[in-house]
Amino acid sequence: MSETTEILYDKEISLVAQDGEKTGRLLAEFTGSDYTVHVTWGSLSSRHTAWNLFQALAQVRGDLEKYGLQPAVEGACIDVYPSRMALEMGGGRRAYHWAGGGRPVTVDIFDDVPVSDHARLASVNAQRTAHEQRQGNGNE
Hints:
Blueprint: E1 5-17, E2 20-31, E3 34-41, E4 44-50, H1 53-65, E5 70-71, E6 80-81, H2 84-90, E7 94-97, E8 105-108, H3 124-136
Antiparallel strand pairs: 1-2, 1-5, 2-3, 3-4, 6-7, 7-8
């Protein structure tokens, strides 16, 4: 018996580069116990499967970084990171946005980031480091 694939997201996204933006397509799926994120742009694509959407997105972002691209989605921002519970219970679809000194707000990791907020986009490593620093400061 084959497992059914549920399409969670199928949307156009902006891929931000130093020389401007490109249009890409993001597809996120759930099959059994695995989540897959697939981003295509032009004739290129990246597809990764993991136990949660945030990790699969991070792996795709790593591939995009090789081309100088960052997806303009909340899950690619320096001030966004999921809690362990969000990863385990919600598949990593939602995460905390630490906007400033107060309490974080919950966002969908595939929500679009407006052009005015593109400075929040970060590499996978920079995002992880910022998360570790917030944990060290007792902010999580």
